[in-house]
Design goal:
The chain is an alpha/beta fold. It has a single domain (2-331), classed as Adenylosuccinate Synthetase, subunit A, domain 1 (Adenylosuccinate Synthetase, Chain A, domain 1). Helix content is 30%, strand content 18%. It contains eleven helices and 16 strands. It has a ten-stranded mixed sheet, sandwiched between helices. 50% of the residues are buried. It binds inosinic acid and magnesium ion (MG). The site of inosinic acid has 20 residues, from α5.
């Protein structure tokens, strides 16, 4: 097991950041490389009582021995990157593929100023849609054209290839979620690129035959930000009463909350080629499971939920997050027969 992709199975914000951080400490990857759209993604990682939010730097940055990369498919906002590099002290170990598309002030203005994107679709206003559009039109600059990025430039596929040849562990971190994939999501209420595992491999220049595992992360109570269909959505009155309230990392918008969607979980697992499923927020299914780190200590209610999810997904649920902090997790990968 050397090259693993991590993606979101619902509409984003499933807790991929926390899962990646856990895998990093446990599996000790030499490289953690990001795929996905760009700085429209927000990942949160909590270590002890410190909370970090990232939009450009891979969430695995908390594991200090890994080289951190941004794959060529990802859009880079040089200003957002620079802020994070300074705040997280990752200079010297973060690299950007020289072909990454660049987000300019003009892209951000066009995103925020477009009634179609900002209002109808409910975009994050981070410039990603217009930047990907310019990239397709072959108009946008690349990372190699930006002097401030010179010190970070790398041929990311080459370093990943070298690591895989040495049988070292590589994590490919996806962003967003299946339901907002440009190809498979609820079009037109989607982001500006596919978000499935195949795309994350392509974003990093890793061929499909070299991927060993695809971990799809599902949230016990899925959420959605922005517009678009959400079949299991509940009223805020109901979710508030259940004590579930979430706000976006990038836009601070209140997230819409829904119930488990077995059909969507199955379809998403199929297209992602899921080999291992992760479920986050099991402490919302039963509060008694908060912080539990052993499968045997989960309540019957939680175990039943996981069993149903496994039947829906068609794969073992081997990672179960029981709270926001890094160590609040059950990892039973390899314990299944
Ligand atoms: P855009 O990607 O900024 O163009 O936004 C398009 C849609 O995707 C909007 O509904 C956003 O809320 C949603 N979206 C984009 N990135 C994320 C993410 O990382 N998590 C959740 N929703 C996202
Ligand atoms: Mg997020």
């Amino acid at each position: 097991m050397s090259c693993t992709i991590i993606v979101g199975g619902f509409f984003g914000d499933e807790g991929k950041g926390k899962i990646v951080a856990h895998l990093a400490y446990k599996d000790k990857p030499v490289i953690i490389s990001r795929g996905g759209v760009g700085p429209n993604a927000g990942h949160t990682v909590q270590v002890g009582n410190q909370e970090f939010g990232v939009r450009m730097v891979p969430s695995g940055f908390v594991y200090k021995d890994a080289k951190l990369c941004i794959g060529s498919g990802v859009l880079v906002d040089p200003w957002v990157l620079e802020q994070e590099v300074e705040r997280l002290h990752v200079k010297g170990r973060i690299f950007v593929d020289f072909r990454c598309g660049i987000i300019t002030a003009d892209h951000i203005a066009r995103d925020k100023g477009s009634a179609h994107l900002a209002k109808k679709i409910g975009s994050t206003g981070s410039g990603c849609g217009p930047a990907n559009s310019d990239r397709v039109m072959r108009l946008s600059p690349q990372a190699k054209d930006v002097p401030e990025l010179a010190e970070y430039l790398l041929d990311v596929p080459k370093v990943i290839d070298a690591a895989l040849k040495k049988e070292e562990v590589v994590l490919l971190e996806g962003t967003q979620g299946f339901g907002i994939s440009l190809y498979y999501g609820t079009y037109p209420f989607v982001t500006s690129k596919d978000t499935s595992a195949s795309q994350i491999a392509a974003d990093n220049g890793v061929g499909p035959t070299r991927i060993d595992d695809v971990i799809v992360v599902f949230k016990a109570y899925p959420t959605r930000v922005g517009q678009g269909p959400f079949s299991t959505e509940m009223s805020f009155e109901k979710s508030d009463a259940m004590g579930i309230q979430e706000f976006g990392t990038v836009t601070h918008r209140k997230r819409r909350i829904g119930g488990w969607d077995g059909g969507m979980a199955r379809y998403s697992a199929m297209i992602n080629g899921c080999t291992v499923a992760a479920i986050t927020g099991i402490d919302r299914v039963d509060k008694a499971c908060f912080g539990v780190t052993e499968y045997g200590k989960l309540t019957k209610k939680a175990k039943n939920f996981i069993k149903t999810a496994e039947d829906d997904i068609g794969c073992p649920v081997s990672l179960i997050s029981t709270g926001p902090e890094l160590t609040q997790i059950i990892d039973i990968r390899g314990e299944y027969t």
